[in-house]
Amino acid sequence: MLTGKQKRYLRSKAHHLDPIFQVGKGGVNENMTKQISEALEVRELIKISILQNCEEDKEVVAAAIVKDTKAELVQIIGKIIVLYKESDEHKTINLPV
Q: Which CATH number, 3.40.50.970, 3.40.50.2000, 3.30.110.60, 3.40.366.10, labels domain 4-84?
């Protein structure tokens, strides 16, 4: 689990990122979570945008992605989900203690 301090740090790092995935009408599927997992391994911190035509609630979408990718939910702000997962091979983010 991330501490409040770590989440604040990650939010500041994520501020300048652009969303690299979009969840639309189809919602979250297996292929998408696989791609998100791969992106998290390379980048550690990503943003996902929820489109207006997405029929599921943003909390439900975030929970499904977190469960399937085993990532940490940093925040949900508006229609943007910020996720973090420590990388095994590409570790670049050093979290404050």
A: 3.30.110.60
Instruction: Parse the chain into domains and list their residue ranges.
Output: 4-84
Give the pLDDT score at 48. 98
pTM here?
0.94
In our burial notation (b when 16+ CB lie closer than 10 A, e otherwise), range 7-19 reads: bebbeebbeeeee
CB 51 within 8 A of CB 23: yes
pLDDT, tens only, 66-80: 999 999 999 999 999
Is the pLDDT at 62 greater than 90? The verdict is: yes
